[in-house]
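Worked example 3 (structure in, sequence out).
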């Protein structure tokens, strides 16, 4: 086994790339296109929400952070995956693996909390519109985002430290495309029960609890929308949260597919598909969803990209 500082010399080998048939150059181009689309799309949303004064409101303040997170956690994994697609040996160093784990766990945890904050924002806007400016003022929005970042980063420090202290066996093969805590626990040469319990507790706190908050918020939102008398009024109210609801569905569906499959042996390509959906497809689709489903965002994009074009076009 590898103990102490011997772990620093470890290189992990990714087996997930065996799912891709040759030539890998085709998949390299596909992943590169997805990565560029994700960065440009989310970057455009980020810049538009920042530059356009019409979007200086809590909902778009949260969308800016969501777009930034999508760029960040995609950048943690996809560039190294692109490198490995074209490399003869699909490896990563021990320290590189820990860096991936730290930022991936941090950004995903922050996004879980941020999606719950966005659901709360929509709940206040639709169910308590007269009190919206009181409950969702600039100070409250800043505090909610700061708390999300603080919780995500602290959680990641704990997981990364616990993983770094594990001794690893002779086998260093990961049935995956990138480093993640559950994958490394399988290679440990000691009882990982404390790590697994910590992972379970944190998943309940930072994963399941925000999801339940989102569900409760939308139960109240739907009830409030149904009480609106006019069809136009109901449509307008629902359209303000439709994009967020689609993003939440995509995020949690791919999360569950990635982390909550049965533990029985399954083909490597299942892990590969889950990884691609989770790390590449969902962040790429988020800006498309917000642009297509949100008239305010579409008008703001027109104003930013071409100020001479009237927003009504």
């Amino acid at each position: 086994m590898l103990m102490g500082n011997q772990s620093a010399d470890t290189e992990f080998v990714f087996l997930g790339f065996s799912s891709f048939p040759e030539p890998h150059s085709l998949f390299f181009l596909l992943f590169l296109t997805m990565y560029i689309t994700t960065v440009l799309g989310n970057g455009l949303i980020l810049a538009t929400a920042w530059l356009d004064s019409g979007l200086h409101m809590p909902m778009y303040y949260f969308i800016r952070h969501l777009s930034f997170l999508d760029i960040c956690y995609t950048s943690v994994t996809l560039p190294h995956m692109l490198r490995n697609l074209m490399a003869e040996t699909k490896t990563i160093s021990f320290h590189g693996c820990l860096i991936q784990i730290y930022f991936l766990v941090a950004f995903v945890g922050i996004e879980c909390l941020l999606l719950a904050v966005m659901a709360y924002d929509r709940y206040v806007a639709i169910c308590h519109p007269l009190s919206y400016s009181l409950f969702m003022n600039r100070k409250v929005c800043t505090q909610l985002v700061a708390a999300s970042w603080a919780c995500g980063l602290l959680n990641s420090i704990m997981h990364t430290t616990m993983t770094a202290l594990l001794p690893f066996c002779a086998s260093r093969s990961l049935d995956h495309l990138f480093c993640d805590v559950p994958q490394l626990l399988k290679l440990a040469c000691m009882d990982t029960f404390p790590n697994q319990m910590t992972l379970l507790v944190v998943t309940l706190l930072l994963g399941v609890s925000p999801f339940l908050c989102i569900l409760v918020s939308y139960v109240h939102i739907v009830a409030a929308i149904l009480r609106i008398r006019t069809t136009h009024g109901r449509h307008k109210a629902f359209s303000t949260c439709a994009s967020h609801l689609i993003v939440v569905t995509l995020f949690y569906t791919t999360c569950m597919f990635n982390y909550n499959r049965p533990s029985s042996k399954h083909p490597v390509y299942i892990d590969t598909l889950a990884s691609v959906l989770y790390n590449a497809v969902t962040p790429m689709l988020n800006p498309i969803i917000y642009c297509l489903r949100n008239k305010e965002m579409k008008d703001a994009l027109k104003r930013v990209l071409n100020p001479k074009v009237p927003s009504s076009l």
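Notes: The CA atoms of residues 58 and 137 lie 8 Å apart. The first helix runs from residue 24 to 51.
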